[in-house]
Amino acid sequence: MVGRVRLSGSGRPVVRGRPVRRWWADLAGSAALLSVVVVVALWLYNGGIRDLSAVGGPATSAGRLTGLVASDLLLLQVLLMARIPWVERSYGQDRLARRHRLVGFVSFWLMLAHIGLITLGYAQSSGEDVVGQAWELVVTYPGMVLATAGTGLLIVVVVLSVRAARRRQRYETWHLIHLYAYLGVGLALPHQLWTGADFAASAVSRLYWWGLWAAALGAVLVFRIGLPVYRSAYHRLRVHTVVPEAPGVVSVYLRGRHLDRLPAVAGQFFCWRFLDGPGWTRAHPYTLSSAPAGDLLRITVKDLGDGSSRMAALRPGTRVLVEGPYGALTTDHRAGRRKVLLMAAGVGITTMRALLDDLTAIGIEVTLLYRIRRHEDAVFRTELDDAVRRHGVEVVYLQGGRARPGSWLPERFAQVTDTAGLRWLVPDVARREVFLCGPPSWMSAVRATLRDAGVPAGHVHAEEFAW
């Protein structure tokens, strides 16, 4: 269906969401580090270094410590990606994904060290060979068959999470495979309950581990399952209309019930499931392309294959399931400067277009640099022209091929450096706050230029869809 939909009767965005406390991220990070300290302290309290003089004692003791820390980090991984709202809004999805990845690889190697050291220590104390001792551990100790199966699943997930392997997978495939990590954690850790000497050594240890297990399980049940189911049922989102914006780009407008109670703000994204036929179970992450207004939400999608190619064919009335909102590229994270520079490339304009609503609503002076290859690739041209006329927004279209390899500027800037080009476009850039969104390589080049132009790192806001 072709047509244009007004986002609100007044043309003003509806203010939603909750303020972001800057100390939330510090609190979450400190709690994660403290958990590792607590694990080591409990290991020492329960006699972790007491038996170093016994045959096999050093290996066994070190194996228990590495196993405990690996278990702690595995559960922290679950909490990192449990979509806890205040953690999501403090860090942003991309920062959480990077920490999840780092913690995941550390816990994986500690888990392998735990397996090897425990097996070696037990073999030394019993006089058996390592292979025989490993077999005995698996078949005779409670929970070890489950732990072996869980370890195998985690190995598969880790191997497929290596960057080279991820590049060969669709997001939907990787996401489905990654869900097996939950099963791997669920199978690998329960042997603590039955055979873990450190787990059962004291009431304090049992309280800590049961509490961490309950927190991880509760977070998944509440925030990954319960909250999306509740919001989908309560708000009853449906496709209202689909509007072409540019070649291969469409906007999907969605209506729902009580959307004023949906805590979404400009710059955030949802994971969407459109109930339009086979494949609806795969969620697709799309950013809001305008600030939430009244009873309407809007996303704008470029046809990049997979699920995005289906957006243009969506029928009005199609039901929609949602997870979110997620992301931290919002005006809540502004440092307070009265002038803002928005920088977008390609479909990254969707996020900048949404932020434009919030910024102009509070009287911020805005300049938008919009990188496109061709005139016809520009999305929201009419809406941007309206922002120029009504709010005095300065919009600069950076059109054409690249000025040089690695440059984010178009070819008309071939005779100057990127930094000089930016200063010519925005002379007061060092005194502005900057929001940017686009392809990762483009954003990396822009970040380097902003740094050279004197923009403090704390005044540059960006978020990549990371997985």
Can you offer a commentary on this structure?
There is one protein chain. The protein folds into 3 domains: 207 residues; 92 residues, Beta Barrel (Elongation Factor Tu (Ef-tu), domain 3); 129 residues, 3-Layer(aba) Sandwich (Rossmann fold), CATH 3.40.50. It has 16 helices and 11 strands. The strands form 3 sheets. Strands 9-8-7-10-11 form a 5-stranded parallel sheet, with helices on both faces. A 3-stranded antiparallel sheet has the order 1-2-5, with no helix packed on it. It has a 3-stranded antiparallel sheet with strand order 4-3-6. Helix 1 packs across helix 3 and helix 4 packs across helix 6. The longest helix has 34 residues. It starts with 22 loop residues before the first helix and ends in a 5-residue tail after the last strand.
